[in-house]
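Intended use. Records like the one below are meant for learning the mapping from a protein sequence to its folded structure. Do not use them to infer anything beyond what is encoded.
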Amino acid sequence: MTQDSARHHPQARAVDVVVIGAGHAGLAMSQHLSQRSVKHVVLERGEIANSWRHERWDSLRLLTPNWQSRLPGYAYAGGDPDGFMTMPEVVGFIEGYAKAIAAPVKTGTTVASVTADDDGYRVMTDRGDWLCRCVVIASGAHSVAAVPSVGAMLPASVRQLTAKEYRNPGQLDDRRALVVGASATGLQLADEIQRSGRPVTLVVGEHIRMPRVYRGRDIQRWLDAVGILDERYDEVEDINRARNIPSPQLVGTPERATLDLNALTACGVDMVGRLVGANGSKLQFSGSLRNHCAMADLKLGRLLERIDEWIEQNGHRSDKSSEEVSAPERYAATRVEESPRLGIDLIREKIGTVIWATGFRPDYQWLQLPVLDRKGRLRHEGGVVDAPGLYALGLNFMRRRKSSFIHGTEDDVCDLGAHLVTYLRQQKVRRVAW
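Structure written out for the chain above:
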């Protein structure tokens, strides 16, 4: 945005780039821009690492081990590389990064709208406006809980919580809880609530079964070594399908425990199939539970075979460890009742709370540009949005399978940052030519 443009809007401040969101992704882009002397600002509605501070449950730890916690020019430096950060530790890590790179963050600044303005964009906030040539959307993929429409049909006597609202079992009464969703979040909440002495029924749809440790190494070691996490968006057959695959059933604990449906069954959690409808207090479930579990078991077997083949081809020590790996393992099939229930009456079975662990979606209500599809999703090609000078970061499988992980940000920022800087230079050349 030129200084002449700024003079047309005397109350607005001008920079080259506005980054929206001061989480790990927005800060990583800030570091990239600072290294290249690009004038920018990072706008954050709350505090640095706001969602990690205020939108997670109390006992949550990262699903990735500490050695994977790294950002451009910054990495975990503690004494427990194979451990898993608690949420306060994640906040401290991201805050430390912001200080280390001296990021130009404006906290407590809520973006009201982004609109086209001359040769760039106008970003309106509750603390004044900004004019810029580029905008980087780093506001996260988990802004709004995706609650199915059947939630509106449930009786008022049953409390409903989303995974963003749940903090600990103390929020619940002593009646049975129904947890909807069996990916990483749903499994952890079901396990925690069941262990608190409250009975739990888990609603299970499509899921990705995965061990915490395989052949003596954390599963993330193998996913990293084999190259699975580096698979690109333009290398998969169906990127839309890949972006909507559930998160793997992983939990980060000091014991490096595996949490799967068999573990939950062993501690007393009841299971039903995918939720398909509601009629007052009566819920209906599909008969696909056995099929979903069989498919998850099959995919797990294929993943382990791929890892075994990689070890066979590359040698036991090619994962950069000095220790020999253990022998191949296979896991017992998921145990499912012969005839899972197809219905539940919430009142009759004394279910006091329904917890929606059914995923999230970004919130783009403030984005006043024609860049959303009919489902409200951002149209982009690997983070390059369908508008000049507009970029996104931190979305699931945005450029690589690891894009939504903290450690996946560096490669994405490198790619998109280079594209952004080139765009700014081309704009400057065009203005000089005029």
